[in-house]
Amino acid sequence: MSKPVKYIILFFLLMLLQIILFNNIQFSGYINPYVYVMFIIVLPIGLPTWAVLLLSFFTGLTVDTFSGTLGVHTFACVMAGFLRPQLLALNITHEAYNPAYAPSIKNNGFRWFLVFTLMMVFIHHLSLFYVEVFRFTGFFRTLLRVLLSTLFTTFFIVLFDLFRSHR
Question: What secondary structure does DSSP assign to the chain, as a single string?
Answer without folding.
Answer: --HHHHHHHHHHHHHHIIIIIGGG--BTTTB---GGGHHHHTS-TTS-HHHHHHHHHHHHHHHHHHHT-SSHHHHHHHHHHHHHHHHHHHH--TTT--TT----HHHH-HHHHHHHHHHHHHHHHHHHHHHHH-SSTTHHHHHHHHHHHHHHHHHHHHHHHHHHHT-
